[in-house]
Amino acid sequence: MRLLVPHATLLAYTHYPTISTAMIGSLGTDRPTVHDAGRSGRAWLLAKRAYFYLCWYLYGLAGRCLDASLVNSTWTRDHLRHVWGPTVPLAIVYPPCAVAALARVPLAAPARARRRLIVSLAQFRPEKEQDKQLAAFAQFVADSPKRADGATLVVAGGARHDLDWARVHQLERLADDLGIRPRVTFLVNAPFDEIAELLSNAAVGLHTMWNEHFGIGVVEFMAAGVVPIAHASGGPLTDIVGPSLATDEPVGFLADTVAEYAAALAQALPEEGDARAARRIAAMRAAARQRAHLFSDDVFAEQISSML
C-alpha cells in the first residue's frame, strides 16, 4: 500500500499480532500455542522456527510503513514495539465487548442468590487449556469439600471442526479420569442467549489461556457480575484484572498453576454462612461490572471517533 499510494496516511488496528516475542519464546517449550494444532517433533519445530523468523522480518517491514497503529491491549503494544521498533506510534484502544447486554443481568436476584456454578467460556482449542480448568476444579473439590459442596462446572465454547470436537471428547475423558464427570457439563456451540442465561446464574468464570492478547471472555464474565479467575499473563494481567489488584476494589483473581486456580476457587466460593466473605465477593462482583464498562461498544466508538 505504501508503494502504491506513497502519500496516503496508513493506520492499522491490531488485535492479534502475526508474530510476537512470546511466540518466539515458546519455541521448544511444551506449552500449546495457536499455531500447533496438535503437531510435534523436531522437523516441525525447525520448520516452525524458520517460519516464525521469516514472519518476524516481513511483519517488521510492514509495520514500519505505518504512520500510526491502534492496538487492543498493553500486551499487544509492548510486543509490537519489539517487532516494529520505536518509530511507529502505538495507541491502546480496547476492543468493543458485549457489555451492555450482559450488564442487564441482576447482580443478585431477589428470589435467589447466584448458584455455586463455575463457568468457562472459550473455543475448544489446546491453547485455551481447558484441561487445566478440569484439574483445578478436581483439586478444589478434593482440598475444600465444604466450599465445593454443590459446586458444578460448565465448560462452554465453540467447536469449528473435527479437531475441536476431538478436543471436547478428550476433555470429557479427562473429567472421567479425574472423578469429576458428574459435576461437569460441556456446552458446545451454544447461542448467545443461552450463554447470557448461563452467566446470569454463574458465580465464577475461569480463563486459562496463556498470553491471550486481550481476553474478551474475561470482560464478559465481569459485565455479567461473574467473578473472573484469569491467567496471570497477557491482557487479563496488564489491562483487565491486573490493574484492579493494586486498588481497594479488586475485580477478580489471577492464577497460573493448577494449585493457584484451586486456591482462587476456594476464595471465590466461600462457605455457606460466611457473611463477611459473601460481602467481599459481592463487592468484587459490583467492581467487576463497573470496570467492564471501560471495554464497552460506546467507549470504543468514542475513542475511534476522537482519533479520526
TrEMBL record:
Residues covered by the Glycosyl transferase family domain: 114-276
GO biological-process terms attached to the record: protein N-linked glycosylation
GO molecular function, one term: GDP-Man:Man(3)GlcNAc(2)-PP-Dol alpha-1,2-mannosyltransferase activity
Keywords: Endoplasmic reticulum, Glycosyltransferase, Membrane, Transferase, Transmembrane, Transmembrane helix
Membrane topology: Single-pass membrane protein
Pfam families noted in UniProt: ALG11_N, Glycos_transf_1
Keyword hit for Endoplasmic reticulum: yes
EC number(s) stated in the UniProt entry for this protein: 2.4.1.131
SUPFAM superfamilies registered for this protein in UniProt: UDP-Glycosyltransferase/glycogen phosphorylase (SSF53756)
InterPro entries: ALG11 (IPR038013), ALG11_N (IPR031814), Glyco_trans_1 (IPR001296)
Catalytic activity: an alpha-D-Man-(1->3)-[alpha-D-Man-(1->6)]-beta-D-Man-(1->4)-beta-D-GlcNAc-(1->4)-alpha-D-GlcNAc-diphospho-di-trans,poly-cis-dolichol + 2 GDP-alpha-D-mannose = an alpha-D-Man-(1->2)-alpha-D-Man-(1->2)-alpha-D-Man-(1->3)-[alpha-D-Man-(1->6)]-beta-D-Man-(1->4)-beta-D-GlcNAc-(1->4)-alpha-D-GlcNAc-diphospho-di-trans,poly-cis-dolichol + 2 GDP + 2 H(+)
Pathway per the UniProt entry: Protein modification; protein glycosylation
Location in or out of the cell: Endoplasmic reticulum membrane
A cellular component term, taken from the record's GO annotations: endoplasmic reticulum membrane
Domain ALG11 mannosyltransferase N-terminal: 6-84
Main localization of the protein described in the UniProt heading: endoplasmic reticulum
PANTHER family hit by this protein: GDP-MAN:MAN(3)GLCNAC(2)-PP-DOL ALPHA-1,2-MANNOSYLTRANSFERASE
Name of the protein described by the UniProt record: GDP-Man:Man(3)GlcNAc(2)-PP-Dol alpha-1,2-mannosyltransferase
